[in-house]
Amino acid sequence: MLDEASITSGRLGRPSVGEAVQDGLVPGSTAYVAQPPWTDNCSIRDNIVFGFSFEQERYEGVLKACALNQDFEFLADGDATIAGAGGSSLSGGQKWRVALARALYSLGEIVILEDVLGAVDTPIASWICSHALTGDVAAGRTVILATHRPEFCIEAARYVVTVENGTAVGNS
User: Fold this and answer.
1) Got the DSSP string for 80-130?
2) Has residue 20 got a pLDDT over 60?
3) Which pLDDT does position 138 carry in this prediction?
4) Which residues form the domain of 140?
């Protein structure tokens, strides 16, 4: 769906120093999770914080919302585990959740997600919808989700567009 839209203006990126922050977000800024998800060759924590100042409470809230805490129990180095090409072999679902956590840790007021539910099992998809996409860490944000598993989030969505064969066929 995202490849269907024409970009006429805007930016994707980290806010500059001194940019106005309202309610913990930079107005008009965007966080984007692409398909496939990208992780840098550094620790999971550094992948999530991604150059922003570290705030323990915010970080823990994002980890919980993205259901990453339980994964750290099985990784010898926890969130210090190296992700990316030169590091640990994270599962597809773990990479998605790390990328989602980075977007939610950011100051992005608009969060665009390409099918973050596609590589996770049913209980995790349900958790992500109720805690990451509509929970406290998403407060004040506009979340745009392209997914083939809408059943997890459709009740919480304010606006739904159905796309078939590349064409929007319905909205509510």
Assistant:
1) GSB-STTS----HHHHHHHHHHHHHHS-EEEEEEE-TTTTS-HHHHHHIII
2) no
3) 93
4) 39-171
The full 3-state SS of 17-50, as one line of letters, equals CCCCCECCEEEEEEEEECCCCCCCCCEHHHHHHC
CATH of the domain at 110: 3.40.50.300
- CA dist list (Å): 1 to 46, 68, 161: 30, 27, 10
Contacts by 57-62, CB closer than 8 A, 24 or more apart: 58/105, 59/105, 61/136, 61/137, 62/101, 62/104, 62/105, 62/132, 62/137
Residues 102-128, mean pLDDT to the nearest whole number: 93
Q: What is the DSSP letter of 154?
A: T
- Flag whether 19 is in a domain: no
As a whole number, mean pLDDT of residues 30-41 equals 91
Tens digit of pLDDT for each residue in 80-102? Answer: 988 877 666 788 899 999 999 99
Domain-located, residue 150? yes
What pTM value is reported for the model?
0.82
